[in-house]
Amino acid sequence: MSLTNKVVIVTGASSGIGAATAVLFAKEGADVAIVARNQSKLEAVAKQIQEYGKTPLIIKADLSKEDEVSSVVSQTVNHFGQLNILINNAGIAVEGSILNGKVLQAYDEVMKTNVRAVLQLAMLAAPHLIKTKGNVVNVSSAAAFTTCRTPTLISYYVSKAALDHFTRCAALELASSGVRVNSVNPGPVDNAFLDHSGFGAVDKYKQGLIDGTALGYMATDEEIAGVILFLASDKAKSVTGSNYLIDNGYLLK
Ligand SMILES: NC(=O)c1ccc[n+]([C@@H]2O[C@H](COP(=O)([O-])OP(=O)(O)OC[C@H]3O[C@@H](n4cnc5c(N)ncnc54)[C@H](OP(=O)(O)O)[C@@H]3O)[C@@H](O)[C@H]2O)c1
Prior knowledge:
- The longest helix has 30 residues.
- Helix 2 links the parallel strand 2 and strand 3.
- This protein has a 7-stranded parallel sheet, with helices on both faces.
- The protein has a single domain, classed as Rossmann fold, CATH 3.40.50.
- By secondary structure, it is an alpha/beta fold.
- The protein contains 9 helices and 7 strands.
- The two termini are 33 Å apart.
């Protein structure tokens, strides 16, 4: 699945799925722009990418802020000359339920990063993706398909359901311009997402998450990156508007 001469933006590339995706795309020959807030973590990922002979463009940006999102695409195109693939992976979960009175606060915070930034980046990227007949992959979640299993994470579930519907709507709007839009929807992934969202180390929840899957296994970041790579590649040229579940059978139980 060679991506030689392709230019890719990966948001949330400072850790987890985004970091694994940026490294995998570089390994396949792509030039990558890596976006997140944490400069030192981005630099560590850049070092891994350099092992494959590629020098990534580091873009330090807080995607919850419209003015910081606004230059991500232009910086990438100015640096690499074009844009072929946009991977909207950055995401957060914030606790707040109807009954604890914090649902609006959590909703506003989560939607800014998980949905609004995605819409803004898609709008800014579209003219460039039309030129290259490129595509967008959004990193959603199995949470988009289920009822809210954790009531305090209601905003996260809502954000991922919104992201999936955006994926379908954007796919339809951009199809006649030759641009595909898809999402990858992981179930539990063995990484630090829960820790980063303030829930503590995944080890605390790990057995419950594993037991929640039919296959008795949590996916790795690299496995999710592999599905993102497939959807972004020409092998998936007939796939658009799809929400690709990779959850070890989490939704079967
Ligand atoms: N882990 C799971 O079990 C799982 C399951 C299903 C879906 N997902 C989805 O997978 C995606 C990636 O998460 P992950 O599992 O790899 O966890 P992660 O390691 O916490 O990655 C989240 C990434 O998003 C970035 N980010 C968060 N807020 C940001 C902001 N305001 N501006 C810019 N970047 C921001 C973080 O970087 P900085 O902190 O450096 O900004 C980090 O690179 C998320 O959309 C998540 O919802 C995860």
